[in-house]
């Protein structure tokens, strides 16, 4: 039976959620025993469309990826829902769609449309009342309170930490289950965030981003409940592929490449070929009937 994210949040300890962006990353992470997976918007848009995370992906693009990943894994999925893809009616539609697709939490942010990745410049936020209304609609729309609303504010970079904290308080009152104050720039800012709210708090650990990368113990001691690592997987995979492809280009072969390859047989098993082969063995009499039989 699938573990519940809402139940896990009531238990001690940090929930570490790796960023997944396609079915290979999702299946790899799913088999390792994480408490949650995080469907990164940045990585999913890049992987699926080859575009920057700049408001170019549609609701249809993203809900399809939610359905694929949630349907192909057993670990609770937190899914990036951007701005809800429009106004309040769009937020209602998005929440219903993500919940039906199998996510256990949706992340909604307060940026203007088109949004931008949270660790890039020139992000602008909508009015606090409008953003709180989106969170309120999301909380009212879900069919189960175990489907969690992650409220994110991007106000820190352009308007300062105090405005971001003020928005976090408004979103908590509007019905958010988890607060996500994006892009604090020092440990001291993270400490202030953690001391400002009673709700579970999410830390966004973006390798190469604006926020310091902290260890598990440090995050727990500060008071964060969830830590997402949205870019770690695709940056690691991209580095490995770039190295392998460069070697192929330079030498004409994979022979003598010094990187690490995932074993082919293990990868075939990860993708489910063992079940295919077992099925074919079980139905061999139907697919390969004896020649000359009456």
Automatic annotation (TrEMBL):
Record's keyword terms, sorted: Lyase
Record carries keyword Lyase: yes
Pfam families, per database record: PEP_mutase
Gene Ontology molecular-function annotations: oxo-acid-lyase activity
Lyase found in the keyword field: yes
InterPro entries on file: ICL/PEPM, Pyrv/PenolPyrv_kinase-like_dom, Pyrv_kinase-like_dom_sf
Protein name: Isocitrate lyase/PEP mutase family protein
């Amino acid at each position: 039976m699938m573990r519940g994210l809402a139940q896990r949040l009531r238990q001690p300890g940090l929930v570490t959620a790796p960023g997944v962006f396609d079915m290979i990353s999702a299946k790899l992470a799913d088999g390792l025993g994480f408490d949650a997976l995080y469907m990164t918007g940045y990585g999913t848009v890049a992987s699926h469309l080859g575009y920057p995370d700049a408001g170019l992906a549609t609701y249809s693009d993203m809900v399809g990826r939610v359905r694929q990943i949630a349907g192909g894994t057993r670990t609770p999925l937190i899914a990036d829902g951007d701005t809800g893809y429009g106004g309040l009616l769009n937020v209602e539609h998005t929440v219903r769609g993500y919940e039906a697709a199998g996510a256990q939490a949706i992340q909604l942010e307060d940026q203007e449309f088109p949004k931008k990745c949270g660790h890039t410049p020139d992000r602008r936020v909508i009015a606090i009342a409008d953003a709180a209304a989106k969170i309120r609609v999301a909380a009212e729309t879900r069919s189960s309170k175990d489907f969690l609303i992650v409220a994110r504010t991007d106000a820190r970079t352009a308007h300062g930490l105090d405005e971001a904290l003020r928005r976090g308080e408004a979103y908590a009152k509007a019905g958010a289950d988890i607060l996500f104050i994006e892009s604090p720039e020092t440990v001291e800012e993270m400490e202030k965030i953690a001391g400002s709210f009673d709700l579970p708090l999410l830390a966004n650990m973006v390798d190469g981003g604006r926020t310091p990368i902290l260890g598990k113990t440090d995050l727990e001691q500060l008071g964060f409940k969830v830590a997402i690592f949205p870019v770690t997987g695709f940056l690691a995979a991209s580095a490995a592929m770039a190295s392998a492809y460069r070697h192929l280009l330079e030498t004409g072969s994979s022979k003598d490449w010094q990187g690490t390859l995932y074993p082919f047989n293990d990868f075939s098993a990860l993708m489910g070929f063992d079940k295919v082969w077992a099925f074919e063995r079980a139905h061999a009499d139907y697919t390969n009937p004896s020649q000359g039989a009456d």
